[in-house]
């Protein structure tokens, strides 16, 4: 049986390295993109079983990328977990809780996240 593939999308290279190591330790293959636009450009090649998506990113934020993916029948069934620090900054940013709901992501995890919590949530969805 082949490993499940996780598509990790975040603009912070250090955070990507840390999360990638955690996810790989759980037995998953990990592909990476650094913003929502790159995610959409690479998704056909990646063919992920699940997407972990940051919200605050350049080019195209995570809400926009999530909405596009969920509106496309080719990708709408791929579970998306928003992994972001936005919740703690809702009052000081342009992002709102409504954005979270309207993105149609399956799950939301605030940063920082403990490795075992992240792996458990991934397992919940695939």
Task: Describe, in plain words, how this protein is organized in 3D.
It is globular and about 30 Å long. The chain is 40% helix and 18% strand. The chain has a five-stranded parallel beta sheet with strand order 2-1-3-4-5, with helices on both faces. The protein contains five helices and five strands, in the order E-H-E-H-E-H-E-H-E-H. The two termini are 14 Å apart. It has helices at 13-25, 36-46, 62-71, 97-102, 115-125; strands at 5-9, 29-33, 50-53, 80-84, 107-110. The chain is α/β, with parallel strands linked by helices and 126 residues long. The chain has one domain: Response regulator (Rossmann fold), CATH 3.40.50.2300.
Question: What's the short version?
Answer:
The protein has helices at 13-25, 36-46, 62-71, 97-102, 115-125; strands at 5-9, 29-33, 50-53, 80-84, 107-110. The protein has 126 residues and is α/β, with parallel strands linked by helices.
